[in-house]
Fold this protein.
Amino acid sequence: MKKEGSFFEDAQEVAKLIPHGRVSSYGAIAKYLGSAKSARMVGWAMNATKGKEMGVPAHRVVNKQGLLTGKKHFGTPSEMERLLVKEGIEVFEHKIVDFTKVFWDPNSELM
DNA sequence: TGGGTGACCATAG
DNA sequence: ACTATGGCCACCC
């Protein structure tokens, strides 16, 4: 794959690569970047994209539990799950239903 | 320059 | 089962 040179930019790239109607996790992206422990930085990268470009579907990135932990960082918390539902993803109580089904792992799918 | 923090994850007690 | 702590990288004060 292409090497941006930083987790920050790379995380944003991977986020853009997430297919429509699919979701990914911070840990999966972090692992794809090479460090499974740096999942926190992925979230930080998403936060940066927020004020950068809207081309990065940060709403498609959730935690391993399928919980929309980062919804609070959006303009409005409802925005995140609203976008997910709009794409056909079932969300219940800020949690993604059938998370394993819509889960998109860059390590397996993209690789 | 140094330290704290952050949308996480995994391991240990 | 739950709580505590370590780890990782980048950013802000």
Q: What stands out?
A: Residues 25-27, 30, 36-47, 58, 61-64, 68-74 of chain A lie near DNA strand B (CB under 10 Å from a C1'). The beta strands of chain A are 24-25, 61-62, 91-92, 95-96.
